[in-house]
UniProtKB/TrEMBL annotation:
Residues 94-166 form the O-methyltransferase dimerisation domain. This is Methyltransf-2 domain-containing protein. Keywords: Methyltransferase, S-adenosyl-L-methionine, Transferase. One of its GO terms (molecular function) is protein dimerization activity. Transmembrane segments: none annotated. Residues 282-419 form the O-methyltransferase C-terminal domain. It comes from Mycena chlorophos (Agaric fungus). GO terms for biological process: methylation. The keyword S-adenosyl-L-methionine applies. Gene3D superfamilies: Vaccinia Virus protein VP39, Winged helix-like DNA-binding domain superfamily/Winged helix DNA-binding domain.
Length: 469
């Protein structure tokens, strides 16, 4: 078979994957008598039945295939020169981030939400946000070009389903009058908070990646290990967490807290009950210590299903402070029966790595619970260099009884090679679904978020203890 025939057959296979996936979506929506949501809709609600059906495993699998196949199809057909030029100019994608952040910080989504489907003229948006009408129109038009917002008439803009997802659910008047309080809310602003966080902290840190990876000599560890891109971008020697706790960073602190709530919601804690460790095998009265628990949203799911288990939540004071209220709202019976503890809440010590952070329990200090049945660590280890992870685990080991077990949950980043039988490939793919050929086995850009998150942790978070002292 000639190369042209092989390539064309790949194109047809990709096109066929797209067509089959559209058929799957069509039949699933038809069987439930629901319309697939339109991009042109000017509102978005995650509880809308049409949006909820998108999370059905059959539909979400078909969507994943379409996203992966369309990107791969474009890569197959475009000229390598055009693809190469686009890759080398991918910084232009940063304009999307910059424009989106501008629109969010200027509360354009809420202005357009109030205006309704007829939209609002750039002149009026500029008057409300005290900006330049010409510039606002250009910023919004770039976003429209990437399917965020719609231009319903020349210089008249309206929300579409994507822009509406960023709605902070507050009136523009309130948002403009009290800008510092834009993220004090019910939590429906968490996607806006996450996006603003990514478009500022991660965006600026990413720009410093090259400047922090090059070693000046084989023994020089200052660039690759000691200084994170975040430190360079924000001209600070503090860790990201310590920087957030500076008095002048109250807004980024609140925004990050809300953003993390949004991330937790994307990865619901009840997943902890599916597969893996059998929580039901623990005898009544067993004690689970959730180390770095946040507000305890994960252990809450365990306690809800197995109400006879005792829970100890441990975290920094800033996290643990709101945890009791969260449990009182969601599982008051566990508090009333004294089955849940929020460790050290009334005796905050000084954090060992920064004088400003008051801590309730620092996992770099000896573990106070000596009779735990389970130490649970979810999404903790990825934030730290290996030697720091060893320290965290050693404190748990020293406090453990012979029967204590460790449940450690974190993401594994898969490779992008189709299984060649090597140890790495089998570790990557044996336990997870592989995309059908000719798609990349890791679903390409349809699952690229894993790789973004992996790099973000290295850019911003992977905390070197030493320069925090
Ligand atoms: C990614 S969150 C994971 C939260 C929770 N385990 C979950 O799965 O949703 C990491 C947590 O580690 C906490 N943390 C960071 N440094 C800590 C320290 N030195 N001692 C205790 N907790 C810490 C953070 O406050 C945060 O709540």
């Amino acid at each position: 078979m000639s190369t042209t025939t092989t390539t064309l057959s790949t194109l047809r296979e990709l096109a066929s994957l797209i067509t089959t996936s559209i058929d799957t979506i069509e039949s699933t929506y038809a069987s439930r008598d629901v319309e697939f949501p339109s991009l042109a809709a000017h509102t978005f609600s995650p509880t809308d039945p049409a949006e909820k059906l998108r999370q059905d495993p059959v539909v979400s699998g078909a969507i994943q295939t379409i996203v992966a196949a369309t990107a791969q199809l474009s890569a197959e057909v475009a000229s390598p020169i055009v693809s190469g030029m686009q890759a080398s100019q991918s910084y232009t994608k940063h304009f999307i981030s910059a424009c989106l952040n501008t629109a969010l910080e200027l509360n354009v989504v809420e202005l357009l939400s109030e205006a309704g489907p007829g939209g609002m003229h750039a002149r009026e948006i500029a008057a409300a946000s005290k900006t330049d009408p010409g510039l606002i129109a250009r910023v919004l038009r770039l976003l429209v070009t990437h399917h965020i917002f719609r231009e319903v008439d020349t210089n008249v803009f309206a929300n579409n389903r994507i822009s509406a997802a960023f709605d902070k659910a507050k009136s523009p008047k309130e948002l403009f009058e009290k800008p510092a309080e834009r993220f004090d809310g019910s939590g429906s602003e968490s996607l806006a908070a996450l996006t603003e966080h990514m478009c500022t902290i991660n965006f600026r840190s990413a720009a410093e990646l090259t400047n922090t990876v090059i070693r000046t000599s084989p023994t020089d560890s200052s660039h690759s290990e000691r200084i994170l891109p975040f430190n360079k971008a924000f001209d600070t020697k503090l860790s990201f967490y310590a920087w957030l706790h500076q008095p002048e960073n109250v807004l980024p602190f609140k925004r990050f807290a809300l953003a993390m709530k949004g991330v937790s919601e994307m990865k619901p804690g009840d997943g902890i009950l599916e597969g893996g460790f059998d929580w039901g095998s623990l005898p009544a009265g067993s004690q689970i210590v959730d180390v770095g628990s946040g507000n305890g949203q994960v252990s809450l799911h365990i306690a809800r299903k197995y109400p006879e288990l005792r829970i100890v939540n441990q975290d920094l004071a800033s996290q643990i402070a709101g945890a009791e209220q969260y449990w009182r709202q969601n599982l008051p019976s566990h508090i009333d029966q004294d089955l849940v503890e929020f460790q050290g809440k009334f005796s905050p010590a000084r954090c060992s790595y920064h004088p400003i952070i008051m801590i309730a329990h620092d996992f770099f200090t000896p573990q106070p619970v000596k009779d735990a049945d389970i130490f649970l660590l979810r999404y903790i280890t990825h934030n730290w260099q290996d030697d720091k992870v060893v320290q965290i685990l050693q404190h748990l080991r020293h406090a453990a009884k012979p029967e204590t077990r460790l449940v450690l949950i974190d993401d594994v980043v898969p490779g992008a090679a189709r299984n060649t039988g090597s140890e790495l490939d089998s570790a990557n793919f044996n336990t997870r679904p592989v995309a059908p050929a000719p798609l990349l086995p890791n679903w390409g850009i349809a699952k690229a978020q894993t790789y973004y998150t992996d790099l973000i942790v290295r850019l911003v978070l992977q905390i070197m203890y030493l320069h925090l002292l």
